[in-house]
Amino acid sequence: MRDWLRDLFRDRPIWINALMIFSSYMAFIYMPWDIFWKPVAEDKEVWFGIMFSGWWAKLTAIPHWFVYAAAVHGFRRHRSWICTWGALYTAQISLGMLIWNIGYFGFSLTGWFVGIVGAVPFALLSLALADARDHFTDARKPMRARYGEWAVVTGASAGLGVEFARALAREGMSCVLAARREDRLTDLAEELEKRHRVETRVVRVDLSTIEGPEALAAACEGLEVGVLVNNAGFGYSGRFDKQDTSRLRDLVMLNCVAPTVLTSKILPGMKERERGAIIMTGSVAGRQPLPLHTVYAATKSFDQVFGESLYVELRDAGVDVLVLEPGSTETEFQEVAGEIPHSGQSAAQVVELAMVSVGQQPTVISGWLNWARAMLPARIAPRSLIAYVAHGYMKDQTPPEMR
Ligand SMILES: NC(=O)c1ccc[n+]([C@@H]2O[C@H](COP(=O)([O-])OP(=O)(O)OC[C@H]3O[C@@H](n4cnc5c(N)ncnc54)[C@H](OP(=O)(O)O)[C@@H]3O)[C@@H](O)[C@H]2O)c1
Questions:
Q1: Residues 68, 70: Cα–Cα separation, whole Å
Q2: What is the signed CA dihedral for 45, 50, 56, 61, rounded to 10 degrees?
Q3: With bands split at pLDDT 50, 70 and 90, how would you rate the model's confidence at 1?
Q4: What does pTM read for this prediction?
């Protein structure tokens, strides 16, 4: 509990932590009470110094809740937009103080005096928030300065892996690019070297074999690996009893065994240097049972639990861990998995989220719709019911002969 609290409040000045606590109180206690329990006749809300009462107050309490809920998220996750968000909201309160007091006392000296005394603290807070960007993610040092010179990206020949390599090279990191399709890796290496003036190393490797992860780790020997992206993976759509045993074995080897072995080999160097980051590409599929993607979902649960546990173990070692959990993303994944094509987020968008989230939190789900789908049912419905609902949903993505 003490470590959890320390982690919750780390890397923020006291006044920002105080705002986060206040916003949490408003979002989780006061506003729900105000919206759902406070009698309509007694309800009052003030916006820009104008008081609303009755049903108008109930209605205008909803944007109030939204302001505080977004603030909790922004402060907690160190998002830089919270500076503008908080500055605008507190400026609104400051203006409201002035308008309200002048309205109450009239355009008298008292009205102006009380109004200004009420407005100044919020105006100062607004200015402080507008100037607080340095405390938030976007102002952090580039990855290379934070973690070290080299990044290892598995599955760098397609989809999310390509975008990870591009994003890391943009941050000045030299990249080890690993996958089976060497021609693609070589093209990407040329692109990164030309565009970002970083070094690259191409490693052609099959990570679903016993030797694969060991061979990749050996190819990284002597390099200061600051970031390891355990991203290579594939899905396998269909009913378990219709699936091929050796492909199932490859699935577990690639999605579970390879990240375990690579992390085990590369982590000691990071610990020695007291800095580094390990990113696991998990999936929202790992959040619940997923019939017709049974083994894939199980491998992604493994990745999630592995990453979340490691995050805590390494918290004081200077090594950050992040499990990125994408939903449907436009890559070669669906084709490889044998799914019926469906739309998704862009790979660049998903990777960008991982880049701002690493070092801030143990897991991140890309996209609010994916977040709602993955998180809300689990909190309100029995797991067995969720499995049946997921089965119905997955049928639409599975070719009839594999259902
Ligand atoms: N796209 C989605 O909808 C989605 C959603 C949630 C999670 N994910 C996860 O995101 C990760 C990346 O997938 P993606 O969407 O980018 O799919 P992708 O476009 O199919 O890319 C998969 C990458 O993994 C590599 N790979 C596959 N088998 C390999 C093996 N045996 N050895 C070494 N490398 C191998 C592939 O390279 P080679 O074929 O050249 O070896 C490729 O570079 C996976 O872990 C996946 O589970 C994807």
A1: 5
A2: -30
A3: confident
A4: 0.87
Q: What are phi and psi of 178, to 5 degrees?
A: -125, 135
- Distance, C-alpha 391 to centroid of its chain: 26
Mutate to test the pocket of ligand 1, among 329, 339, 342, 397 (most ligand atoms within 8 A of CB): 329
Q: Are 338 and 402 in contact (CB under 8 A)?
A: yes
Q: What residues line ligand 1, using a CB cutoff of 6 Å?
A: 155-161, 179-181, 205-208, 231-235, 254, 281, 283, 326, 328-329, 331-333, 336, 344
Where does CATH 3.40.50.720 sit in the chain? 142-402
Closest CA to 125 of 101, 94, 96, 98: 94
Neighbouring residues of 335: CB distance < 8 A, sequence distance ≥ 6 = 341
Q: What is the pLDDT of residues 282-319, one digit of tens each?
A: 999 999 999 999 999 999 999 999 999 999 999 999 99
Helix, coil or strand: residue 103 = helix
In angstroms, what is the span from residue 157 Cα to ligand 1's centroid? 9
Identified catalytic residue from 296, 311, 388, 393: 296
d(CA 379, CA 374): 10
User: CB burial class (10 A; 0-12, 13-18, 19+) of residue 127?
Assistant: middle
Pairing of strands 50-53, 44-47: antiparallel
CATH code reported for the domain at 142-402:
3.40.50.720
Q: Report residue 115: phi and psi, to 5°.
A: -60, -45
Token duo for residue 395: 């049928």
**Distance separating alpha carbons of residues 167 and 321, to the nearest angstrom:** 17
- Find out whether 31 and 66 touch, Cβ atoms under 8 Å: no
